[in-house]
Amino acid sequence: MEENSLAVQKWIISFGTPIVVMLLPLGIDPVLQRYIAITAWGLLCWVTVVIPAGLTGLALPILYMFCGVASAEVSFASW
Questions:
Q1: Backbone angles phi, psi at 13, to 5 degrees
Q2: Alpha-carbon span 79 to 28, nearest angstrom
Q3: CA–CA gap between residue 39 and residue 5 (Å, rounded)
Q4: Is 32 helix (H, G, I), strand (E, B) or coil?
Q5: 77 Cβ neighbours under 8 A, 6+ residues apart
Q6: Between the CA of residue 10 and those of 5, 30, 61, 63, 79, what are the distances in Å?
Q7: Are 43 and 37 in contact (CB under 8 A)?
Q8: Residues whose CB is less than 8 angstroms from the CB of residue 15 and which lie 6 or more positions away in sequence, other chains included
Q9: How distant is the alpha carbon of residue 15 from its chain centre?
C-alpha cells in the first residue's frame, strides 16, 4: 500500500509543480513562464521516473513546439 501512495505522490509532484508555476503571477514573459513550467515537468518526470526517460526526452521538444515556446526547427535542432 505504501508503494501505491508513493507513486501517487510522485505523480502529484511531477504534474502539480509545473501547473503551479504556470498559475503563479511571476511577472515574467509568458513564453518564458511556459518554458520554465515545461522544463520543470520534464526534470521532475525524469527524476521521479513516473514516465520513462526516453518518453520524457521526446515529449519536451514536442511540448515546446505545441506550446509556442520554440519553433519545430529550434525544438528538434539537436536531432
A1: -65, -45
A2: 30
A3: 25
A4: helix
A5: none
A6: 9, 27, 22, 21, 29
A7: no
A8: 41
A9: 8
> Which residue has cell 514516465?
51
What are 52's three cell numbers?
520513462
Which amino acid is located at 37 in the chain? A
Q: What is the pTM of this model?
A: 0.89
Cell digits of residue 49: 521516473
Residue 1 above 80 pLDDT? no
**Strand, coil or helix: what is 75?**
helix
Residue 79 scores a pLDDT above 90: no
Place of cell 500500500: 1
